[in-house]
Design a protein that fits this description.
The structure holds 3 protein chains of 3 kinds.
Chain A (H helix, E strand, L loop, with lengths): L7 E2 L4 E4 L4 E2 L3 E4 L2 E4 L3 E4 L4 E6 L11 E9 L3 E5 L6 E4 L21 E9 L5 E4 L6 E2 L4 E4 L5 H5 L4 H10 L2 E4 L4 E5 L2 H16 L6 H16 L1
Parallel strand pairs in A: 3-7, 10-12
Antiparallel strand pairs in A: 1-6, 2-5, 4-5, 6-7, 8-9, 8-11, 9-10, 11-12, 11-13, 14-16, 15-16
Helix pairs in contact in A: 2-3, 2-4
Chain B lengths: L5 H12 L15 E5 L7 E7 L2 E12 L10 E7 L15 H16 L9 E3 L3 E13 L4 H13 L3 E2 L5 H10 L3 H7 L4 E2 L7 E8 L2 E4 L3 H6 L2 E7 L5 E7 L6 H25 L3
Parallel strand pairs in B: 4-6
Antiparallel strand pairs in B: 1-2, 2-3, 3-6, 5-6, 7-8, 9-10, 9-11, 11-12
Chain C lengths: L7 E2 L2 E2 L11 E5 L7 E7 L2 E12 L12 E8 L14 H17 L8 E11 L4 H15 L9 E8 L2 E4 L3 H6 L2 E8 L4 E5 L2 E2 L3 H34 L3
Parallel strand pairs in C: 6-7
Antiparallel strand pairs in C: 1-2, 3-4, 4-5, 5-7, 8-9, 8-10, 10-11, 10-12
Classes of the chains: A alpha+beta, B alpha+beta, C alpha+beta.
Chain lengths: 226, 279, 241
Amino acid sequence: MAQEKREIVIPSQLLGDIKNKKAGRGTFVENGKIYAEILGILNNSSDYINVNPLKGRYDPIEKDFVIGIVEEAMASSWLVDINAAYPALLHVNEVPWEVEFGETERYLNHGDSIMAKVLQVDQEKRLQITLNDRNLYKIKGGLIIDVEPSKVPRIIGKQGSMISLLKKYTNCRIFVGQNGRIWIDGDIEGVKKVIDTIKMIEDEALSYGLTNKIEKLLLKEAKDVR
Amino acid sequence: MTITPSLKRDYLAKLAENGKRADGRKFNEYRKIEIETDIISNAEGSARAKIGNTQVIAGIKLDIGEPYPDTPDEGVMTTAAELIPLASPDFESGPPQADAIELARVVDRGIRESEIIDVDQLCIVPREKVWMIFIDIHILDYDGNLFDAASLASLAALMTTNVPIERLKPTFEILKEKLPSIEQYLDDHPKNFPLPLRDPPISCTSVKYNGAVVMDPSLDEEEIAEARLTVAIDKNGDIRAMQKGLNGSFNRDEIKKVIKASTDNGKKILEQLYKSVGK
Amino acid sequence: MNTEIKLIKNGKRLDGRKPDEMRKIKIEAGVLHRAEGSCYLEWGDNKVLAAVYGPREAIPRHTQNPLRAIVNAKYNMAAFSVDDRKRPGPDRRSREISKVISEALENVILLEKFPRASIDVCIEVLDAEAGTRCAGLTAAAVALVDAGIPMKDIPVACAAGKIDGHVVLDLGKQEDNCGAADLPVAISPRTGEILLLQMDGHLTLEEFDKALDMAIKGCYIVSDLQKQAIMKKYQSVSEGI
């Protein structure tokens, strides 16, 4: 079975011409030519030439679900680290509680973890997040691990196939933030298995047939235990 | 600044209650240790020590200088450590902070109090000129347990150091005019010779969190540690240096257990150290 | 300094190299665990380690530029990296080198994508043998790519000089100490533009042209090595090895 290699490109690599293609994500144009601007995987399949980054911090997009860690509680807002180039602001108006001025520490403090959504990214890259949604909350219990944000799609899998596999075979609750943070909760064995499997996905993210490989492995381990 | 989510603290504590550590190690187990020597051509001695992902380079430079007034016939040793911004997003450049100073002083004590360097043999002209040994520790990658990695790198570097008679010949020539006995010294030591050393002590560090005491802390474990204890043990199992850090506490029993575990691990690490310097 | 040594005899230099021959170079990308991007580079006896953190919010706040990121490259020599131990800490030479390297890097990094941020580059010279700033910049460039920083090119540096009346490529230690001129150059290889240029010594206009040509040729050789190092690190990942 012929496998097309996923092509890795590096900054300054010539990818195409604006006469035939449009310049997409991860590229820049100079003198009518399209070049890669980051280390990443080339995606040439449509009208657009895109480069999907292999490395780098999370690039916030409005409506993304992210896992944040509170840095500081201020008078009427909190500063939250979401693994981007900048900390995000969470305003008291964007949380489900009635917070009095200066009482922010009662609700969220340095070191607390939250499941949030990116509300706004403005021109100066100032970030705002929100907790105002049924699915958003302050996280209690479990563990959060960090992965490369670029690997998140792989860990989720096509239509969530990979993450469903993981949940099924480990009986853990898992939530993957777009910003490369993953929350896991379950018994000690289950959590360890999720962590190990995610590590494997990270290391082999670019290879083909990964979902099948992981399924076989999880199946085998489950059988061994019995 | 890297924040440790309180979730992590709780998770590690829960694991500890069940006798487990996040990376699957036993409480008294070290991560993989790698030691490489003779890596810096300009240094008189050098070594790189890796414990897990933590990486430290130690470089030894020698120079000729004046002895301390209260030890006129002994060589002089100084240890400096740099927590360079390379190694962690939390390290800042600039003059050494308290952490770097403590690290350097603890490593220094471990080496000095164990008398591993035979400073009596490093006198050139009594009361006038002695060898000065500079131990410079450079942290390259910080993933927990800098004390042990820095100590190992320093020891391995010292054990492969050569006193640079040849490189300093020009300095000797100049000194000969004022101090004629240098002539005799050069006759006795015409070429580079290995730094005179005795048996090295091994430093073992443990931390305590949530009532559990674990050895060779990973970065996560260090971040939630309440107290830390470093013990330097010599080949006879005697204690040469100790340092307790952070604002938590240990009880006598815990200290005894740490000393025992340090002695056990120390033996194995010492063997590896000797192997890496080719003895 | 012994000026009676002949640095070049019958077209052969002290270490046996020809006038246009480079020292041996080895480059490895992604070698550190904590840093977001890193590179270890050996060039002759030079050993350099570069690490990148960022982009991250620039602190202190007064250093922030509301329109773009700032680049803080810090070049530092380890105490044991040189013949006579160097006192730890930045000296004026290190500060100057840090500045010219920062400026060269600012040219190629797409700074407007990260207003108010800083990109911090640490360059540690662990072992020095002439040409550390070229080695440092070259390593820093690889570390930046490894960190996923968007750039319009991967900068690279190389030096040429003059010894015993001959223009030669990539000065070694003694050649640097006893030679008549030293010309470190950094370029953006895609466009050929010069990003760093310093000269020290005495060159006629003709000699300068020749030296600049040589240094730029050297840059292209090293540029290939940088790209190979990056591909080597990530290729194995793509092949599912």
